[in-house]
Every structure is written in structure tokens, then in C-alpha cells.
Amino acid sequence: MKRDAGHFNLTARVLHWLMAAMILTMLFVGVGMVAALHWRPMLVDLHRPLGIAILLLVIVRLYNRLRHRPPPLPADLPAWQAAAAHASHWVLYGAMLAMPLVGWSMLSAGGYPIVMWSGFNLPPIVPHDPALYAALRSAHSLLAYVLFATVVVHLSAALFHLWVRRDGVFQAMAKGPGNTRDDPTR
Description:
Layout: E1 2-3, H1 10-35, H2 40-67, E2 68-69, H3 79-110, E3 114-117, E4 120-122, H4 130-165, H5 169-174
Parallel strand pairs: 1-2
Antiparallel strand pairs: 3-4
Helix pairs in contact: 1-2, 2-3, 3-4
Cofactor: heme b
Membrane topology: Multi-pass membrane protein
Family: Belongs to the cytochrome b561 family.
């Protein structure tokens, strides 16, 4: 396993920002699916393939993280903050894996096809069962709230490191090595 002292590798940075955009999109799409019945069919058609794309990318991201350890947190970071940072990252990874799997399972249990694009459907991964569908629908909603809350905490912590601590934690994900020119926090 490789460890880079001051930054995340390029693959980690690209996947982080790509998935951040995708997850924020999914959160808004999810709200829109519930709030705007007129737009629901179009949003569902976007929601399903985007969820599966997130599932595939989080697997790649986990593989990359296991091969390339992240840079260490600042030595002067209080222990509780370091523990919270590690816990929140694993909650994010867990939610990014669980959300699409629970969604896929939910649709399978409901007997709904998982249409990726015209002519290609994903196979069901659980048997058709209305009671299971209801439980998975509740779980999917609960996970969405957990993911949203964790994203807010993650973003808040990132901005805290950028604007208050000015300790390079944000830059470790935002920039690669040697990209410190015009950095107001340095």
C-alpha cells in the first residue's frame, strides 16, 4: 500500500469530485421525485442509472483507497476530530454502497424493472415481495437522510479546514503535488 505524504492521488481526487457532483445531483433528484409529480418519470429515469454509476464508482474508489492510503491528518488535530473524520468517511462509503444496493433491492422486491437504458434492464437481486419492498423503501429514505447529513458535516469540516485551521487538509483533496501557486491559504 502506497502512502502519499501531502495529497490524495489523482484517481482519488477525480473520483471524489465526480462523485460529489453525482451525489449532490442524486439528493436533488430524490427530493424532486417526491415533490414534483410532473417531473417524476424523467427524474426516475435519471435516478436509476446515476445510482448504479455511483455504485460502480464507489467500488473503484474503495479499491483505490485500499491501494493508496490517504495523507495523514495534521498531528495537532484533536483526537476526537480525527476519530470523527475517519468515522464520517466510512459512513460516507457505507452509504454510497448501501443506497444504490437498497434502491436496486427495493425495485426488485416491488417487481419494478431497473431500466438502465432502452433495451437494457438490470436483473432483480431479491424476490418480489411487497412487505420487503415497503421495508426497503423506508430504509432507502432513511439512508438518504443519513447521507445528506453526513455530506453536510463533511462539507462543513472541509470548509473549517480550509478557512479556519488552514492546515492543508482541503488542499490535499483539491490539488495535487506542486499545485500550490496562487493558494491564499498557504
